[in-house]
Design a protein that fits this description.
Chains A, B: InterPro entries: ArsR-like_HTH (IPR011991), AsnC-type_HTH_dom (IPR000485), Dimeric_a/b-barrel (IPR011008), Tscrpt_reg_AsnC-like (IPR019888), Tscrpt_reg_AsnC/Lrp_C (IPR019887), Tscrpt_reg_HTH_AsnC-type_CS (IPR019885), WH-like_DNA-bd_sf (IPR036388), WH_DNA-bd_sf (IPR036390). Two copies of one chain form a homodimer. Chain A is of the alpha+beta class and about 150 residues long. Helix content of chain A is about 40%, strand content about 30%. In chain A, helix 1 (about 5-15) packs across helix 2 (about 25-30). At the A-B interface, helix 1, strand 1, strand 3 and strand 5 of A face helix 1, strand 1, strand 3 and strand 5 of B. The structure holds a DNA duplex (17 and 17 nucleotides).
Chain lengths: ~150, ~150
DNA sequence: CTTGAAAGAAGACCGCG
DNA sequence: CGCGGTCTTCTTTCAAG
């Protein structure tokens, strides 16, 4: 956990709202000079609070109309199994997210495909050949809303 | 689905790899001039293929050490129930993602909290008071890997 | 905080198929 | 007319006073 004052948090809120905003814009909105805002942003990056900035693509417009969440339960659960599974799953391009979780499942995968036949191909040829998978549960994404989440 | 040629896809790959890259850098990497690359990027934005660029914050460094995924099953499933649920859940700042899904659950929520006591507070005072919730299932996030996903 | 040099953004304009 | 290339201007970045 890193120290952030109210100004830092205001900067983060402004950047979450618009990640493309320049240091000058941020400063103007908060009553700071451009270099002052810029230095604070750099400090937040260096501290790792801001991990980076990533592109938000519309998978559907790229021809990937199907997103499925897979709950995965492993059979054998040594630490070697986890590593094997993670390494194998990392080689599947259709897998967008690998979440190691605690609860009903061991992993949750976000998988995209062009359509349902394409998803079946991924499932049969890629997912079902993963090492150590004992059971699978699938949920098809209908719609999704992402929200900023709490800052401070 | 939008038309993208191989050059567009190369641009998207480069931007996914580094969302902060300038049009000049992208162009240099692909053998295009700065304005040519810039025009293509703008076109991809206008077409909605690039939805935008969002800040990637480290929740842990901001003091939110706990991330939990909640699978939610609704009791009453008229279309009014879905709207009521979505509206109510949108008012909870700790909820980062609302996914409407098809399968074992109706919704999946990504919830962050400072620690487990804080999560209990959110669960009891916010989540359990949501309208129409019939059953809940929780998974605690241990670690997560995000990958670029397929482009074309 | 202010300044200043280097880089990037973004428009006007031309040439090609 | 799409698309790319050059030239040009304005803004932003980022380091140094």
């Amino acid at each position: 956990m890193i120290e952030t004052d109210e100004t830092d948090r205001a900067i983060l809120r402004a950047l979450v709202d618009n990640a493309d905003a320049s240091a000058g814009e941020i400063g103007r909105a908060l009553g700071l000079s451009q270099p002052a805002a810029w230095r604070r942003i750099r400090r937040l990056r260096e501290a790792g609070v801001i991990r980076g900035t990533r592109l938000d693509l519309d998978a559907e417009k790229l021809g990937f109309g199907v997103t499925v969440f897979l709950g995965v339960k492993l059979g054998t659960k040594g630490q070697a199994s986890l590593g094997d599974f993670e390494r194998a799953v990392s080689a599947i391009p259709e897998v967008q997210t690998v979440e190691h979780i605690l609860g009903m499942y061991d992993y949750r995968l976000r998988v995209v495909a062009r359509d349902l036949p394409d998803f079946e191909r991924v499932l049969r040829r890629r997912i079902m050949t993963l090492p150590g998978v004992a059971s699978l549960d699938a949920n098809v994404l209908l719609s999704e809303e992402r929200r900023p989440g709490p800052i401070g």
